[in-house]
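User: I'm writing a short report section on ligand binding and want a predicted complex to refer to. Could you take this sequence and zinc ion and write out the structure as C-alpha coordinates? A short remark afterwards would be nice.
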Amino acid sequence: MTEQAFELLRRVRYVFYPRRCALCGKVVAPTQEICSACKASAHRVPMPICPYCGCGRKDCACDKHRSRFAAAFASPFYYEGCVREGIRRLKFHAEPEIAEALGREMASFARQAYAGVRFDVVTFVPMTRREKRDRRYNQSELLAASAAKALLLPCVPTLEKLYETRRQRTLDHRRRSGNVFGVFEVIDPKSIEGRRILLCDDLRTTGATLTECAKMLRIRGAREVLCLTAAVGYPKRERSGKDEIQ
Ligand SMILES: [Zn+2]
Ligand SMILES: [Zn+2]
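Assistant: Sure. The C-alpha coordinates for the complex follow:
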Protein backbone atom coordinates (compact mmCIF):
# COMPACT_ATOMS: atom_id res chain seq x y z
CA MET A 1 0.00 0.00 0.00
CA THR A 2 1.32 3.45 -0.85
CA GLU A 3 1.95 6.06 1.80
CA GLN A 4 -0.98 8.21 0.53
CA ALA A 5 -3.39 5.30 0.50
CA PHE A 6 -2.41 4.41 4.04
CA GLU A 7 -2.91 8.02 5.16
CA LEU A 8 -6.34 8.11 3.49
CA LEU A 9 -7.35 4.88 5.19
CA ARG A 10 -6.24 6.23 8.52
CA ARG A 11 -8.38 9.36 8.05
CA VAL A 12 -11.45 7.40 6.99
CA ARG A 13 -11.02 5.16 10.02
CA TYR A 14 -10.70 8.24 12.22
CA VAL A 15 -14.13 9.49 11.08
CA PHE A 16 -15.76 6.32 12.42
CA TYR A 17 -13.44 5.64 15.33
CA PRO A 18 -12.02 8.94 16.47
CA ARG A 19 -8.85 8.62 18.46
CA ARG A 20 -9.23 9.45 22.12
CA CYS A 21 -6.78 10.79 24.65
CA ALA A 22 -5.40 7.80 26.57
CA LEU A 23 -5.87 9.59 29.88
CA CYS A 24 -9.03 11.73 29.82
CA GLY A 25 -10.85 10.14 26.87
CA LYS A 26 -11.47 13.35 24.90
CA VAL A 27 -11.26 13.11 21.10
CA VAL A 28 -7.79 14.05 19.83
CA ALA A 29 -6.07 14.36 16.42
CA PRO A 30 -5.24 10.99 14.86
CA THR A 31 -1.53 11.52 15.47
CA GLN A 32 -1.92 12.28 19.17
CA GLU A 33 -2.04 9.75 22.01
CA ILE A 34 -2.36 12.08 24.97
CA CYS A 35 -4.16 15.43 24.59
CA SER A 36 -2.26 18.67 25.18
CA ALA A 37 -4.27 19.48 28.32
CA CYS A 38 -3.31 16.14 29.89
CA LYS A 39 0.29 16.48 28.69
CA ALA A 40 0.49 19.79 30.49
CA SER A 41 -1.29 18.69 33.66
CA ALA A 42 0.07 15.11 34.09
CA HIS A 43 2.18 15.06 37.21
CA ARG A 44 5.47 13.62 35.97
CA VAL A 45 7.95 12.12 38.40
CA PRO A 46 10.99 14.41 38.27
CA MET A 47 14.47 12.98 37.77
CA PRO A 48 16.55 12.01 39.62
CA ILE A 49 14.37 9.42 41.34
CA CYS A 50 14.76 7.62 44.64
CA PRO A 51 15.40 3.92 43.81
CA TYR A 52 13.83 2.79 47.08
CA CYS A 53 10.35 4.16 46.40
CA GLY A 54 10.39 5.39 42.79
CA CYS A 55 9.37 8.95 43.69
CA GLY A 56 11.38 11.99 42.67
CA ARG A 57 14.18 12.52 45.20
CA LYS A 58 12.82 15.92 46.05
CA ASP A 59 9.37 14.48 46.87
CA CYS A 60 10.57 11.27 48.51
CA ALA A 61 9.45 10.63 52.07
CA CYS A 62 10.41 6.96 52.29
CA ASP A 63 12.46 5.32 55.01
CA LYS A 64 15.18 4.31 52.50
CA HIS A 65 14.53 0.70 53.31
CA ARG A 66 15.94 -1.26 50.42
CA SER A 67 14.00 -4.28 49.35
CA ARG A 68 16.23 -7.33 49.28
CA PHE A 69 14.45 -8.51 46.16
CA ALA A 70 13.46 -5.57 43.97
CA ALA A 71 16.59 -3.59 43.12
CA ALA A 72 14.68 -0.40 42.22
CA PHE A 73 11.33 1.16 41.37
CA ALA A 74 10.54 3.68 38.63
CA SER A 75 7.36 5.26 37.20
CA PRO A 76 6.86 8.09 34.72
CA PHE A 77 3.89 9.60 36.60
CA TYR A 78 2.46 10.27 40.01
CA TYR A 79 -0.99 8.78 40.58
CA GLU A 80 -2.77 12.12 40.39
CA GLY A 81 -5.28 13.96 38.20
CA CYS A 82 -5.55 12.79 34.60
CA VAL A 83 -3.11 9.89 35.09
CA ARG A 84 -5.20 8.57 37.96
CA GLU A 85 -8.28 8.90 35.78
CA GLY A 86 -6.59 7.10 32.87
CA ILE A 87 -5.47 4.18 35.04
CA ARG A 88 -8.91 3.87 36.61
CA ARG A 89 -10.49 3.77 33.16
CA LEU A 90 -7.97 1.13 32.10
CA LYS A 91 -8.80 -1.02 35.12
CA PHE A 92 -12.47 -0.54 35.71
CA HIS A 93 -14.03 0.61 32.44
CA ALA A 94 -12.68 -1.99 30.02
CA GLU A 95 -10.60 0.38 27.94
CA PRO A 96 -7.49 -1.71 27.25
CA GLU A 97 -6.17 0.62 24.52
CA ILE A 98 -5.11 3.09 27.24
CA ALA A 99 -2.30 0.65 28.05
CA GLU A 100 -0.66 1.27 24.66
CA ALA A 101 0.10 4.91 25.36
CA LEU A 102 0.96 4.40 29.03
CA GLY A 103 3.25 1.49 28.18
CA ARG A 104 5.19 3.66 25.77
CA GLU A 105 5.56 6.35 28.47
CA MET A 106 6.85 3.66 30.82
CA ALA A 107 9.39 2.52 28.22
CA SER A 108 10.78 5.98 27.61
CA PHE A 109 11.04 6.59 31.35
CA ALA A 110 12.81 3.26 31.86
CA ARG A 111 15.38 4.30 29.26
CA GLN A 112 16.35 7.22 31.50
CA ALA A 113 15.84 5.72 34.96
CA TYR A 114 17.52 2.42 34.07
CA ALA A 115 20.01 3.77 31.54
CA GLY A 116 22.79 1.27 30.97
CA VAL A 117 20.84 -1.70 32.38
CA ARG A 118 20.56 -4.54 29.88
CA PHE A 119 17.31 -6.35 30.53
CA ASP A 120 16.75 -9.87 29.25
CA VAL A 121 13.01 -9.93 29.60
CA VAL A 122 9.93 -7.87 30.53
CA THR A 123 7.29 -9.47 32.72
CA PHE A 124 4.24 -8.43 34.77
CA VAL A 125 2.24 -8.95 37.95
CA PRO A 126 -0.21 -11.78 37.19
CA MET A 127 -3.91 -12.21 37.97
CA THR A 128 -5.71 -15.42 38.79
CA ARG A 129 -7.57 -16.98 35.88
CA ARG A 130 -10.86 -15.86 37.31
CA GLU A 131 -9.73 -12.28 37.85
CA LYS A 132 -8.52 -12.13 34.27
CA ARG A 133 -11.74 -13.61 32.97
CA ASP A 134 -13.80 -11.06 34.88
CA ARG A 135 -11.83 -8.09 33.53
CA ARG A 136 -11.20 -9.80 30.18
CA TYR A 137 -7.55 -8.72 30.30
CA ASN A 138 -4.72 -8.12 32.74
CA GLN A 139 -3.87 -4.43 32.59
CA SER A 140 -0.33 -5.09 33.88
CA GLU A 141 0.24 -7.55 31.04
CA LEU A 142 -0.96 -5.00 28.47
CA LEU A 143 1.28 -2.29 29.93
CA ALA A 144 4.25 -4.69 29.98
CA ALA A 145 3.58 -5.76 26.38
CA SER A 146 3.47 -2.17 25.17
CA ALA A 147 6.60 -1.19 27.12
CA ALA A 148 8.44 -4.31 25.92
CA LYS A 149 7.58 -3.54 22.30
CA ALA A 150 9.00 -0.03 22.63
CA LEU A 151 12.13 -1.36 24.37
CA LEU A 152 12.56 -4.13 21.76
CA LEU A 153 12.47 -6.79 24.46
CA PRO A 154 10.39 -9.96 24.81
CA CYS A 155 7.38 -9.80 27.12
CA VAL A 156 7.00 -13.13 28.87
CA PRO A 157 4.58 -14.33 31.57
CA THR A 158 6.87 -15.64 34.31
CA LEU A 159 4.57 -15.66 37.35
CA GLU A 160 1.21 -17.09 38.25
CA LYS A 161 -1.14 -15.95 40.98
CA LEU A 162 -2.13 -18.96 43.01
CA TYR A 163 -5.22 -17.65 44.72
CA GLU A 164 -7.32 -14.54 45.07
CA THR A 165 -6.52 -11.96 47.68
CA ARG A 166 -8.39 -9.09 49.22
CA ARG A 167 -7.93 -5.92 47.25
CA GLN A 168 -4.83 -4.16 48.50
CA ARG A 169 -6.63 -0.84 48.60
CA THR A 170 -9.07 -2.15 51.17
CA LEU A 171 -6.25 -2.78 53.63
CA ASP A 172 -4.09 -0.41 55.58
CA HIS A 173 -0.47 -0.28 54.57
CA ARG A 174 0.92 -2.54 57.30
CA ARG A 175 -1.38 -5.40 56.27
CA ARG A 176 -0.54 -5.34 52.58
CA SER A 177 2.63 -7.46 52.64
CA GLY A 178 0.81 -10.18 54.58
CA ASN A 179 -2.09 -10.12 52.14
CA VAL A 180 0.11 -11.01 49.16
CA PHE A 181 2.58 -13.26 51.00
CA GLY A 182 3.03 -16.57 49.17
CA VAL A 183 0.41 -15.70 46.56
CA PHE A 184 2.72 -15.84 43.52
CA GLU A 185 4.80 -18.61 42.02
CA VAL A 186 7.22 -18.75 39.11
CA ILE A 187 5.82 -20.70 36.15
CA ASP A 188 9.11 -22.05 34.84
CA PRO A 189 12.25 -21.34 36.91
CA LYS A 190 14.52 -22.38 34.00
CA SER A 191 13.21 -19.52 31.88
CA ILE A 192 14.30 -16.86 34.40
CA GLU A 193 17.56 -18.31 35.66
CA GLY A 194 20.33 -15.72 35.63
CA ARG A 195 18.04 -13.22 33.90
CA ARG A 196 17.75 -9.51 34.52
CA ILE A 197 14.03 -8.83 34.65
CA LEU A 198 11.93 -5.69 34.21
CA LEU A 199 8.77 -6.30 36.27
CA CYS A 200 5.74 -4.18 35.29
CA ASP A 201 2.51 -3.22 37.03
CA ASP A 202 0.03 -0.37 36.76
CA LEU A 203 0.59 1.26 40.12
CA ARG A 204 2.94 1.26 43.08
CA THR A 205 1.83 2.46 46.49
CA THR A 206 3.51 0.49 49.26
CA GLY A 207 5.31 -1.77 46.79
CA ALA A 208 4.10 -4.89 48.64
CA THR A 209 2.81 -6.68 45.52
CA LEU A 210 5.88 -5.89 43.41
CA THR A 211 8.22 -6.86 46.21
CA GLU A 212 6.46 -10.20 46.68
CA CYS A 213 6.69 -10.92 42.93
CA ALA A 214 10.34 -9.85 42.86
CA LYS A 215 11.01 -12.11 45.84
CA MET A 216 9.71 -15.17 44.03
CA LEU A 217 11.64 -14.33 40.86
CA ARG A 218 14.88 -13.91 42.85
CA ILE A 219 14.32 -17.05 44.94
CA ARG A 220 13.77 -19.05 41.74
CA GLY A 221 17.00 -17.82 40.21
CA ALA A 222 16.57 -14.43 38.50
CA ARG A 223 19.75 -12.39 38.65
CA GLU A 224 18.10 -9.00 39.22
CA VAL A 225 14.58 -7.56 39.24
CA LEU A 226 13.84 -3.90 38.57
CA CYS A 227 10.29 -2.59 38.74
CA LEU A 228 8.45 -0.27 36.38
CA THR A 229 4.90 0.99 36.90
CA ALA A 230 2.75 3.50 35.02
CA ALA A 231 2.29 5.51 38.21
CA VAL A 232 3.47 5.79 41.80
CA GLY A 233 1.46 7.16 44.73
CA TYR A 234 2.46 10.71 45.55
CA PRO A 235 4.30 10.48 48.89
CA LYS A 236 2.25 13.05 50.78
CA ARG A 237 -1.02 11.52 49.71
CA GLU A 238 0.26 8.07 50.60
CA ARG A 239 0.92 9.16 54.17
CA SER A 240 -2.62 10.47 54.52
CA GLY A 241 -3.89 7.06 53.41
CA LYS A 242 -6.15 8.39 50.65
CA ASP A 243 -4.58 6.40 47.86
CA GLU A 244 -6.27 3.55 46.14
CA ILE A 245 -4.50 0.64 44.61
CA GLN A 246 -5.34 -2.52 42.74
ZN1 LIG B 1 -6.50 14.16 27.82
ZN1 LIG C 1 12.28 7.24 48.48
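A remark for your report: The mean pLDDT is 89. Residues 168 and 176 are 6 Å apart (CA to CA).
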